[in-house]
Specification:
The protein has 317 residues and is of the alpha+beta class. The chain has 10 helices and 10 strands. A 5-stranded antiparallel sheet has the order 2-1-5-4-3, with helices on both faces. Helix 7 packs across helix 8 (202-217) and helix 8 (202-217) packs across helix 9 (244-261).
Length: 317
């Protein structure tokens, strides 16, 4: 519909005031920077509500950079400047400093405006407050990490589980073969544990497993030493770059640690306290060797220790 002068009255032309009102009514904070001077030609009044800094305090990109977390400043500034020089639209997440001294997570979405000959003329963009989103992302990350930790941790004893052991032994086997270094493994079994449960009950049996796991895990003293629950009342210790003599010393230390605990066991034929049997083996893996065969060898030595009366270690035969 038009009036007598031919002007469209249903869709009147939009003026600058309309656009400003529209921009300033959103939660996103609009801004514009002149590329030649690197000065703000505009920033929305919402910036004061979010960060506390007044509109007129945003003079140039220096103000933007200075009001950024020190850990984010270098990479964010370098990235945004390089992308702008290349004439590429981009976005960046960083922590912005409030006037009160706190930090707010910001997502800056930047669009490059070019002149008629294609040179960068200005940058326009929107700042979004993504603090709540970051909190949710952090919670999700923590939950995911917790789930990952739980998936590799034995729920009862709180040490690594069989799944984690399977991953570690593959890594250490490969390292040992590549570097021609010895790899030792000690397999532990709590002596007469069925009888322990029969006499003291499963609840106290669980407490016994926890104590033994805690004590034996203390023998993994080097960064790459690895201790895990192997299954039931069995535990396993992986000792990278360890020869048989050193492995025996570690096994002796494990026996001493268990002895010091003095956990009563009236149902044991090996002692009046809880003891462990140990199978030990060391290998320099060749390409034709397998992890399965090596672990079977360790298990055979453990079986021999139990056949010979328990409360001992076997590393030959």
């Amino acid at each position: 519909m038009s009036d007598s002068n031919g002007i469209n009255t249903l869709n009147p032309p939009l003026n600058a005031q309309f656009y400003r009102t529209l921009l300033e009514s959103t939660q996103a904070i609009p801004w514009q920077i002149d590329w030649k001077t690197l000065k703000f030609s505009y920033i929305g009044p919402q910036i004061e509500t979010l960060l506390g800094w007044t509109q007129d305090s945003w003079k140039s990109v220096e103000d933007w950079a200075e009001r950024m977390h020190p850990e984010d400043r270098d990479w964010a500034v370098d990235y945004c400047v390089s992308q702008s020089k290349a004439g590429a639209d981009h976005e960046a997440d960083y922590r912005a400093l409030t006037k009160k001294g706190d930090y707010v997570w910001i997502r800056d979405v930047v669009h490059v405006i070019r002149d008629e000959i294609g040179d960068v003329e200005s940058l326009v963009g929107f700042m979004f407050d993504i603090s709540e989103r970051k909190k949710i992302e952090d919670k999700l990350f923590d939950l995911q990490k917790e789930l990952e930790d739980l998936s590799f941790k034995d729920g009862l004893t709180n040490v690594a589980n069989r799944r984690m052991f399977d991953s570690i032994i593959e890594v250490e086997w490969t390292n040992a073969r590549r570097n021609n270094q010895p790899l030792s493994v000690i397999l532990f079994d709590i002596d007469f544990f069925k009888q322990y449960n029969d006499i003291y009950g499963h609840i106290q049996g669980d407490d016994c497993l926890k104590k033994v796991a805690k004590v034996l895990s203390q023998s993994a003293t080097r960064p790459r030493d690895f201790f895990a629950r192997y299954g039931g009342e069995e535990f396993i210790l992986v000792l990278p770059e360890t020869d048989i003599e050193s492995a025996r010393k570690v096994a002796d230390r494990c026996r001493s640690l268990i002895f010091k605990e003095q956990i009563p066991h009236q149902g044991s034929d090996a002692s009046h306290i809880v003891t462990v049997s140990m199978g030990i083996d060391t290998t320099l893996p060749e390409h034709t060797d397998t992890i399965k065969e090596f672990l079977q060898s360790v298990d055979r030595r453990l079986y021999m220790a139990k056949q010979q009366g328990r409360n001992r270690m076997v590393d030959v035969g």
